[in-house]
Every structure is written in C-alpha cells, then in structure tokens.
Amino acid sequence: MNSLRVARAAARIRPSTFVAPLQRRSYADAVSDKIKLTLALPHQSIYKSTDVVQVNIPAESGEMGVLANHVPSIEQLKPGLVEIIEESGGSKQYFLSGGFAIVQPGSQLSINAVEGFPLDDFSADVLESLQASLK
Amino acid sequence: MAFAWKASGLTYNRYLAVAARVVRRSLKEQPRLQAERRGEMELRFAKWESGKQGENKSLAEVNAADMAEHAGKE
Predict the structure, then answer these.
(1) End-to-end CA distance of chain B
(2) Measured between alpha carbons, how far is residue A131 from residues A34, A124, A127, B26, B49 in Å?
(3) Which of A2, A45, A120, B23 has the fewest CB atoms in 10 Å of its CB?
(4) With an 8 Å Cβ cutoff, is A128 touching chain B?
(5) Looking at this predicted complex, what is its ipTM?
(6) Higher confidence at residue A7 or residue A76?
(7) Does the pLDDT of residue A22 top 60, yes or no?
(8) B25 vs chain A: nearest CA distance in angstroms?
(9) What residue ranges do the domains of chain B occupy?
C-alpha cells in the first residue's frame, strides 16, 4: 500500500522533470560571417574589434586572405599592403612596416605592426628620391 | 627558412626598427614630422664599478657596434 503511494507520487513528478529545454536559436547566436579585426600600432589602434568581411595580409609564407572562421594561426608579416574589405563593401589599404597577424579562434584577427599608414599618407616624390638614393 | 635580415646579422627587433624608419621617411611632410619623433631613442647607460660611475655611453651606438661585430657569424 505504502509502496504503491510512492510509485504514484514518482509518476506524478516525472513528467515535469523531463521537459526538454527549448531548442530555439535567436539572432544573437546565429553564426556570423564577419571577422573581428583589431589592427594595432604601439601608439594607435586603427581597428578595434571591428566587424569586417575579409582581410588580405602579406605573410612571410605568402599573400593570404582571411575570412570568418579561418583556422587559428600566427603569421609573420612582410612589410606590405594590408587590404581590408569592410562590411559596407568598400575596401581600405594600409601599408604596414612588418609585424604579426594572429588568427584566433572565434573569428578574431589581431594584426600588430610598428608603423602603418593609409596609402594617401605616402608621397610619390619622396619614394622616388629614396629609391634613387639606394642606387 | 633563412631570413635576409638574420643572415645580415640583424636581430628581429632591429629589422623591425629599420623597416619602420623607412616607412616613416617615405611619408608626406605632415604625417612624417609627427611620425619621425616616434623613431628617436636616446637611452644612455653607464656601468658602475666600486662605487664609481663608468663612461656614459649611448645604447644605440653600442648596439650598432655590437651588431656589426656579430654580423655574418651565424
């Protein structure tokens, strides 16, 4: 008699404990196709965890393009052009003097360099005279 | 992989400094004047022995001399 009551009580509890958690996906955890770019110089950060579409970097091992969900890696950079394709579709180019690009898990890319400037900041005349002085 | 900067006796730090200096020098007047101040380094050091200060030397000059001495040895 007593055991029957226990069994009945258990049967009553059971359904509520086995409610499956709601499998619902919100916009927040949908997989992003953007990569978070941080482009930092010792004296300034040009990008700070900004969502961008693609980043092309001049690695020592060759030119490479980095998209979202890239495999984590560390790349030494040659002095050269870094091209950033932004969310709006436009692209920006910076010339970096060399440093490191670190692709972290979770679509994060950190680029560190000593000096980096947009192309507009360079003067063609000065470059020509520098080149002439090397010869 | 053998790097050109390593073969010529530079440290990676020195190589980066040289590359950064070239970049700064190739800028237009306005950003260049601002940027070139960042490349300056005037650290000096002296060795103290038995309570007396030795010769006061510039770190940059001593580093350059050291690197010239070690160039091509590795």
Answers:
(1) 14
(2) 39, 10, 6, 10, 47
(3) A2
(4) no
(5) 0.73
(6) A76
(7) yes
(8) 8
(9) 4-70
Q: Which amino acid is at B16?
A: L
pLDDT of residue B8: 80
Question: Which residues of chain B neighbour A126 with C-beta distances below 8 Å?
Answer: 25-28, 32
Residues A26-68 have pLDDT tens digits of 665 656 788 999 999 999 999 999 999 999 999 999 999 999 8
CB A49 within 8 A of CB A35: no
The domain limits of chain A are 35-134
CB within 8 Å: B16 and A95: no
Q: How far is Cα A87 from Cα A85, in angstroms, rounded to an integer?
A: 7
Integer-rounded Cα radius of gyration of chain B: 16
Q: Is the CATH number of domain A35-134 2.60.15.10?
A: yes
- Kindly provide the b/e burial profile for residues B37-57, where b requires at least 16 CB atoms within 10 angstroms of the residue's own CB: eeeeeeeeeeeeeeeeeeeee
Return the SS3 of A36.
Answer: strand
B-interface mutation test, from A75, A81, A82, A117, most B Cβ less than 10 A away? A117
